[in-house]
Structures are given as structure tokens and as C-alpha cells.
Amino acid sequence: MSITPLMPVYPRCGVRPVRGDHCHLIDEDGTRYLDFASGIAVNLLGHSHEGLIGAIQRQAATLMHVSNLYGSPQGEALAQRLVDTTFADTVFFTNSGAEAVECAIKTARAYHKSQGSDRFELITFKNAFHGRTMATISASNQEKMHKGFMPLLAGFKYVEFDDLEAAKAAIGPQTAGFLVEPIQGEGGIRPASMEFMKGLRALADEHDLMLVLDEVQCGVARTGKLYAHEHYGIAPDVLATAKGIGGGFPLGACLATEKAARGMGLGTHGSTYGGNPLAMAAGMAVMDAVANEEFLAEVTEKGERLRSRLEQFIGNYPELFELVRGKGLMLGIKMKVESRPFFAHLRDKHQLLTVAAGDNTLRVLPPLVAGDAEFDEFFDRLSAGAADYTVPETA
Ligand code: PLP
Predict the structure, then answer these.
(1) Does CATH number 3.90.1150.10 belong to domain 17-36+293-387?
(2) Dihedrals φ, ψ of 337, to 5°?
(3) Pocket of ligand 1 contains residue 214 by CB under 6 Å
(4) pLDDT digits (tens, 9 = 90+) for 81-107
(5) CATH architecture for segment(s) 51-290
(6) Is the Cβ atom of 181 under 6 angstroms away from ligand 1?
(7) Where in the chain is the domain with CATH 3.40.640.10?
(8) What is the model's pTM?
(9) Which of these, 150, 170, 146, 147, lies nearest to 158 by C-alpha position?
């Protein structure tokens, strides 16, 4: 047998972490890596946050899982917290981002059904990433994710990201809404413009469409706001959140207004694990840490400092780097050469973990608790990495 016990769907690298220490990961051979990937925008409190660990330990010793057939004091408390701090009136808990997006897609379709309409199509945006389930790969135009899995789920129309006229032109009699990342993550840390986000909101209002935001990567304080849409002064009808909300514990949620959730009545959706007490304890510990003005202001301030240092730094290597973009501590360095080999070079030669993304972008996603010491170490490693980098022949 040549297949590996772990289904070989990931191009796994040689880094094999066995321990986390604040903003560092320690490999099984003892090598220390500076983690500015954060499990791809997940470990927002780093790897050894006492509040998060304590909450999980206490809850694990008390009650880990019960069925959603029972009342959930833990789920009610976290849902109330999210309702109090966001646009939402109601919350469905999931275990991942893709499941949160799935629930959001169903919520949008069910809204129109509840209005006596058959509108089911969501307008989505090129180079988006929404997850790896059938519905979420169908929502993305990226053919590399479709290969081998046809036919896709019907009901998605792809248009250019950040192109309001294209979005408007795509509206038809079957359109149920828009599904969009306010800041594309996998697509290369591409923030939508103010005009685009405000325009989508206006179009949704005008045509009674659902504005569904995928904030799985950009949500939960990453950009200096609890959710990224707050930068645009708009509110969605439905929002998918995950990654950071569990701080490393698998947790996601679909947030909706009362109006948008009209179709999501008894028996329409479910999940065995979604909203279990252990996940709720993790989510509450994360909210305790991040959902306050001081923490959010710190993320904004750190993001500005990191960005201006990055902008200065890339000027030293005009042949490698083009520009810096993003918001808060969700930053991307767009490269003039292929970003993947440079990302691997930083990882393997300089023990610096970042994440490669589309559009030849290097994602810089530090834990939100990183401070000056970690930023200095980051620049030491990045500078050394740029200084001894040779662009591969094929890149
Ligand atoms: N949506 C966005 C914007 C993401 O970045 C991701 C994951 O990278 C997902 C959805 C899917 O989340 P998960 O991998 O937890 O299913």
C-alpha cells in the first residue's frame, strides 16, 4: 500500500510542531519557529493564553458535549454575547468555517422561500475562498478546487471582485443575494473598496437580496474591528465566522438578523457537535479577551506600526516586493516574483512562518497578542530571508 494513513490531500512541509509557546511553535526536533501564520488566522491569542487554556480545561472537566436536543445555557450565553456585540439577532454554531458558510447559504435561500419566492442564486466573486465542502467549492470560481468533483452545486454566479457594476449587471430574477469576503484572504489579502461594499448593501436593499459576508478569515478582531464590515459602515444580513472565534478550538458560527433568519425554523438545520459546551467555553474566553475597545485599539495600532515598518522594509528590495496591503494585523506583501518559494525559504532557512496566498502575496497574520519583541524578531528574520534569497530559475 502506498497511500499514507493521513489522506494525502495536503502538501505537508517538514515543519512538525509539537508545542506552542506564545507566538512561537516548537518542532519535534526542538527547532523554534516564529509563528506569523497563526494557523491561518486562527490562534489570535497565541499558543499559551492562560484565559483560553483555563476556560477549556475547566469546561472539559465539567461537561464536554451534550446533544442539541437539550437546552444550552453555554450556547445561549455565547450567542447572546455575539448578538450584543454585532449586527446579529440570532446565531447558529458550527465546527468550521465551511459549515458556517453552508449555513449562511441555506439561510439566504430559506429567506426567499419564506417570502414565497424561488430565488436561490448567490452572486459570488472571483478568487474567493469559502471552504472545501461541495457548496463552498461551488461558490468559488477556482477551477483547481472543482477538478474531480463535478457536478457542482447549482446556484452561484461568479463576477469580478470589487467591481460594483459587474455585480449589479449580474442580478437577475433568480438572484437571492451576494456572498463576499470583505477582505479576500486566500485570494491575496485584497480589501474590497468602500464604494463596493456600500454599493452591495444598497443593491441588496433595493432588490431585497441577502448580503452574506464571509468573515471566516478577516473577522474576530483581526483587522482592528470585531468584524471587518464595520470598517465600511455597513451591516450584513448574514455573516459566517470561524477561525479566530475559537482561538484554536474548532468553532464557527452563522450570524443573522431576525429578518434574514425567517426561513430557518424548526428542523431546517442542525449539527451534532455545533455549539457544544467545550467550544462555547473557548468562544467565550476569546470574546472576553478581544471584544473590547482597548484590545481592538491595540490591534489597530500594532497593525499600523507593522504596516509602516513593512512599507519601509520592502523599499530595500524593489526587485522582490511590490506593495503592502490589508487592514490591522491581516497584512499581505504582494511580490514581484512568485511568493511560494520565498514563503518556503523564510520557513525552512529562517524559521519564520507566514502563509502564501493568491496573486503572489505573502500573508502576514501574527497572533493579535504579538508585541514589539515579536515584531523585531519578525523583521530580523524577514530581512535575513530577503538578503540571502535567490529567486528560483522557474519563478
Ligand atoms: N471562508 C474563508 C474566507 C476562509 O479563509 C476559509 C478557510 O481558510 C473558509 C471559509 C473555510 O474555513 P474552514 O477551513 O474552517 O472550513
Answers:
(1) yes
(2) -120, 175
(3) yes
(4) 999 999 999 999 999 999 999 999 999
(5) 3-Layer(aba) Sandwich (3.40)
(6) yes
(7) 51-290
(8) 0.98
(9) 170
